[in-house]
Amino acid sequence: MPLTQIKFAPGIDKQDTSVGAEGRWVDSDNVRFRYGLPEKVGGWQSLLSDSIVGVARKQHAFVDTEGNRYVAIGTDKFLLLYFEGQLFDITPFRCSNAGVVDTLTSSTLATNSTSVKTCTITTTSDHDLAVGDIVELSSVTLPSGTGLNASDFEDKLFQVLTVPTPTTFTIDSLNQASAVVSTGGSMTVKVYETVGPAAQTYGYGFGIGNYGGTITGALQNDLDGALAADTAGNNGSATQIRLTSTTGFPTAGTIAVGNELITYTNIVGNELTGITRGAAGTATFGTSNGQAHSDGAVVTNATNFSGFGSAVEASSVTLEPGLWSLSNFGEVLVATVANGKTFTWNSGITARLTTRASMLTSGFETRIDAATDSGNPTATRVTLISPTTRHLIHLGTEETIGTPSSQDDMFIRFSEDENINKYTPQATNTAGTQRLQDGTKIMGGLVAKENILIWTDNALYTMKFVGAPFTFGFEQVGTNCGLIGKNAAIEIDGVAYWMGNNGFFSFDGTVNTLPCSVEDFVYDDADTTKGQQINAGINNLFTEVIWWYPTSGSDFNNRYVVYNYGQDNARLPMGNWYTGTNTNSIRTSWIDSLVYPKPYATAYNSANTGTFPQVIGETGLGQTVFFEHEIGTDQVNPDGSVTTLTSFIQSFSFSLQKDQSEVFLAMRRFLPNFKVLTGNNQVTLSIKDFPAQDDQETTLSPFTINSSTTKVDTRARGRYANIKIENTGVSESWRFGTFQVDLQPDGRRG
What we know:
This protein is mainly beta.
């Protein structure tokens, strides 16, 4: 018999049966389709010898008037700048609404005599710090006898370890020469602006109170005794927690301490008994069960939560991760902390690389100035800039500027054109407001070619400049198509693509549902309650939209799905999609190759420790690596080491007999046809008699294929087969072509 050629349509199909999807691929990892053929994706290499502390969730690339290129990187702790191969810390300090830095002066330091060397800093007023906050110390003088030098603290960053009282906190003192006690000295403490937690979770904290509802019977009291970072309760008890008073607390319920939820089953005196630490996934990452809380920490009843008129369980209250909105107003970077303040950074000044983002950037102030009736909102979900009219737009913001409690998640406020600090609507300016109706909160926004697109959790709106007297017109263009997370939408060539709570969509003037051949695979296991962690990216080099998302039980993103918008055709009614689960391929932020020739992306590892900025006493913040993509064939790490980039693709079962007769066939050999093949590749062949006999497949051990392989001899018998193509070694790449088999009749079915 002549050789039989087996052809496969591009893309992965997980919606159909093995018989119905014959001629398709069923699974893949680190594989893309180009010109209809599968190939291993390009490699990536670290742009820096340093790694970033914390998890990066937003990038923004821009060019100043002198042609300098920058990437702003927003993490859960820092705002960083990438410039000419280096990182610079431009994180704003915590400040008042007027932009004045919150400086804790005349603070004193006390060392301890324990084996775990820490320093206690006492402030002259309440510091409003929380465990995990970042502080910078300066103007340090030390008491005698510490064995330390001022240089051990001067201009250095420390992570707050504990908060014993409203006027004290502790930091690490690893350089302490001996276990001595000494008190005195003085220093200045500046606090880094708080962004938010590393991961999206549930409980009482971000997104509650002023940002979404009220606590029913929101009683508060204090811990009477510290809690260790494990299952231990008060003073080592594993089953109970003591409060200074339990009056008014429900007999059984949930409390919130910091960002941790703790459930209890009974109250005995001032003790909560039957406790469960780290409820609803709120244990601090890096600990197994619960966070460490100091004696006197505030305890809030979180048993009942009511928001927008309906009561829900405390476990359904979302703690959104630390997010940023980043854009540029000419050469000025505009950075907004999600549900927080807006800061600016000017690339046009001489000392730009040693100047932090602030609310007081000359000519681009975002501070509130009552005397001049100017100032930015101080609680906003998302900001963006209208590129043609140059308005700064606040989405999900304050009804009363400077009053965070007036934040309305559906309210929009936009500045005067060419003036990002003027928001009071007047007959002589173009500032204004608008409230959207369909949904409960604005999730995100994008600047498109002709419109600004604004998504709520249920709908899509367009915002278009119409001129005086309304400035912008708003039109609802879709419903039941809400955005799952702030960074889950992307726009390319005038078309927007996004991930919703139950499907994928596009907008090209009309909202379209994207047919998806992997939809059930994605949504059956995706943790849609962590939608704010999902991020989308465009790789225009290969016409790909990529979404990285977390699955159930995962604290962080651990899978990706790709839609190839440039490879659709009549053969692909369900679209050209492919998926992956390789840990090395997961990204938390991405920028396309526009300002830079290749895509830039960030990868996070919660188990490792970052090196920039250097934070003394840092624990549990994790590590982000900054990569340039489509470089080489493997992963090059910050230290120069190479991690193998493995890949595979698996086909559905295909019939060896086109006429579907009852004749069994013997496969004597197959001829692999690779368009590109560098190094070795492995081809695994599986044979079975009937479509449903997966458990009775005969698997022929992987055959090693290289550029000199012309054929592979086999001894196989059956009616159906599938193939798996993979690489496992360094410096290997491939692009598959066709698959030919030599078949001979081998009897009939008995």
